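Support request from a user on the community tier.

User writes: "When I paste my structure tokens into the form, the page sometimes reloads and wipes my input. The last time it worked, I copied everything first. Here is what I submitted, just in case something in the input itself triggers the reload:"
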């Protein structure tokens, strides 16, 4: 890519962020939580299920175990009783109990705020760590999931299918003032408008910018 092409892509990314900022005035997580630990727990539980399903089970779970100490004490079997309606409940219960215990033992009961420490916890991969850093600690991180990957490719911000590379591509294109909210702009746009099988292109604020072959102008 030439310098001019790169500059044009940066301008395009800036325009996309401005459109999304206008369309999504409240770029916030759709998971319910009251602390960085509850956020981490909710994100861990959200693997391969929807935020809505997670929000259905967390009120009772967090009432029983609101912090790392009580979650570790509840243990995998106690956690399982609260989350068994979710997919992968056995593994999620074990990981959440183990992560809570390590947060108590290694980090004094506080969720760590570095990528390295977060990803050292059981069940916490790069995507979960970036969500916690972005949403819980206000860091300009973009956690690339299936929605962000799809939207970024459709809008021509990346040609990669590898989350880490997409994350680097986005970080190199998106203006600094939008980096904090870029994760939710792209995620919420992908979840609610630029959907995988039936994108609502007729309601999209970027119709004139998008040249994706996936564009569809049909009512859902
Ligand atoms: S026009 Fe359609 S495919 Fe393109 S970004 Fe908007 S919703 Fe997605």
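"...and here is what came back when it finally went through:"
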């Amino acid at each position: 890519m030439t310098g001019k092409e790169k500059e044009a892509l940066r301008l395009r990314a800036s325009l996309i962020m401005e459109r999304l900022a206008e369309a999504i005035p409240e770029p916030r997580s759709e998971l319910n939580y009251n602390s960085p630990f509850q956020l981490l727990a909710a994100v861990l539980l959200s693997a391969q299920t929807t935020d809505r399903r997670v929000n259905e089970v967390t009120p009772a779970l967090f009432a029983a175990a609101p912090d790392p100490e009580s979650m570790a004490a509840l243990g995998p079997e106690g956690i399982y009783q609260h989350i068994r309606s979710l997919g992968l409940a056995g593994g999620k219960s074990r990981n959440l109990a183990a992560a809570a215990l390590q947060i108590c033992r290694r980090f004094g009961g506080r969720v760590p705020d570095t990528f390295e420490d977060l990803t050292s916890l059981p069940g916490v991969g790069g995507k979960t760590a970036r969500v916690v850093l972005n949403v819980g600690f206000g860091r300009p991180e973009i956690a690339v999931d299936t929605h962000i990957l799809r939207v970024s490719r459709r809008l021509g911000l990346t040609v990669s299918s590898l989350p880490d590379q997409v994350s680097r591509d986005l970080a190199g294109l998106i203006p600094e003032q939008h980096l904090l909210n870029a994760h939710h702009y792209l995620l919420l746009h992908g979840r609610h408008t630029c959907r995988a099988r039936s994108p609502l292109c007729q309601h999209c604020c970027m119709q004139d910018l998008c040249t994706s072959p996936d564009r569809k102008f049909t009512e859902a």
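Agent notes: The reload is a front-end session timeout and is unrelated to the input. The domain at 3-28+143-203 is CATH 1.10.1670.10 (Endonuclease Iii, domain 2). The longest helix spans residues 3-23. Escalated to web team.
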